[in-house]
Specification:
alpha+beta; two-stranded antiparallel sheet; 2 domains
Length: 170
């Protein structure tokens, strides 16, 4: 069986039992059609866009992306997987009033629970700025909004975070 990368609560049969990788994500296979159908209905009926066009939920655009990013303090663009943590650290040091909300799902292997926590706790920032980071995790996978109870909690947490921090600025 293949375990879902986006949500480990989903599983499905291996497409190729001898393959090193799954070849698909059981969570996407289970729920993606609902999102594609809703999107098509919305853009056609409400926005009056795309009549006669085909919406493709995923295409290989990554091969066209330029991933060279120059983090603060670097002599030039860095190759490989983009790491934006130095940018966040620089922004927080430049603006010590900057608040950050980190959210995630416990069942997410695409951006695992402890990875985000670890990265944030090891940001190269003064210790006192750690209190500017707020964490909320939900009984969900990568797409927190796909679980109705988690969606409501996420909404409430984000609304409170924004309200609290807009009020704090005034």
């Amino acid at each position: 069986m293949t375990t879902g990368r986006l949500d480990t609560r989903f599983s499905g049969p291996d497409l190729d039992p001898l393959s090193r990788e799954a070849g698909y994500d059981p969570q996407s296979a289970s729920i993606a059609s609902a999102y594609v159908s809703s999107f098509n209905d919305y853009v056609r009926k409400d926005l009056h866009y795309g009549e006669g066009r085909i919406y493709r939920p995923s295409i290989d655009v990554g091969k066209y992306w330029l991933s060279g990013h120059q983090p603060p303090g670097a002599d030039g663009p860095q190759s490989g997987i983009m790491n934006l943590m130095p940018d966040l650290a620089s922004a927080m040091k430049t603006n010590p009033n900057l608040k950050v909300l980190l959210t995630g799902g416990y069942f997410d292997l695409a951006t695992p629970y402890f990875e985000g926590l670890y990265e944030m706790r090891h940001l190269p920032i003064p210790d006192k700025l750690q209190s500017n980071i707020e964490y909320h995790y939900y009984q969900s996978g990568h797409m927190v909004y796909a679980n109705e109870a988690s969606l409501k909690l996420l909404h409430d947490d984000v609304a409170r975070f924004i309200k609290q921090n807009v009020t704090a600025e005034k």
